[in-house]
Specification:
By secondary structure, the protein is mainly α. The chain has eight helices and no strands. α4 runs antiparallel to α5 and α4 runs antiparallel to α8. The longest helix has 50 residues.
Length: 188
């Protein structure tokens, strides 16, 4: 979907007239703005794709709720859209490595769990209670967003569980070694 391709080679023979005029080549991005974009390698990763899908579905759901008679529910998709964008850029810019004081996996896990539960509840209500097409569309996109958030929190939970199991097995190994060294039994 987003295959990483190599940067194009610079033009070996640039147009000297445009270089003297101070104009850049069409389509060339300014280096300052390019620093704000997430890296293509991150966007190709599973986490990047999930965050893109979450933010996209949240935005579509928000727009559907704005156009529907169920506008009381538009705050949740807006908040989840902004949080998904925040985590997208935080993960892409590797803020979790820079800000060590925050427990990033737990914050992301709680964001995904609450988003899945809230989207599920408001989607059922929007589909069942309201009859206009925009409410039905918002409910359907909300169900898709629920699935995306559920997949994300399942993957985060598995990663955290693996990490904790590795920590527990290391503690058990050191405890077993200490127990063997302290034992006074003779096997003869």
């Amino acid at each position: 979907m987003w295959p990483p391709d190599q940067e194009p080679d610079p033009d070996p023979d640039p147009d000297p007239a445009s270089a003297r005029a101070g104009r850049s080549a069409p389509g060339a991005a300014m280096p300052g703005l390019r620093a704000l974009l997430p890296a293509r390698a991150f966007l190709c990763s599973l986490k990047g794709r999930l965050l893109l899908a979450e933010s996209g579905l949240s935005f579509i759901t928000f727009v559907c709720y704005v156009a529907s008679s169920a506008s009381a529910f538009l705050a949740a998709p807006l908040l989840e859209f902004l949080l998904a964008l925040y985590f997208l850029f935080a993960d892409a810019m590797q803020l979790n490595d820079k800000w060590q004081g925050l427990c990033w996996p737990m914050m992301d896990f709680l964001r995904c769990v609450t988003a899945a539960l809230i989207y599920f509840a408001i989607s059922i209500t929007a589909v069942a209670k309201y009859s206009d097409g925009a409410s039905k569309a918002a409910g359907v996109f909300g169900f898709f967003a629920t699935i995306m958030f559920a997949i994300d929190f399942y993957l985060i939970f598995n990663d955290v569980a693996k990490f904790l199991k590795q920590g527990d097995s290391a503690e058990e190994n050191t405890a077993d070694k200490a127990e063997e060294e302290n034992s006074d039994s003779d096997s003869d």
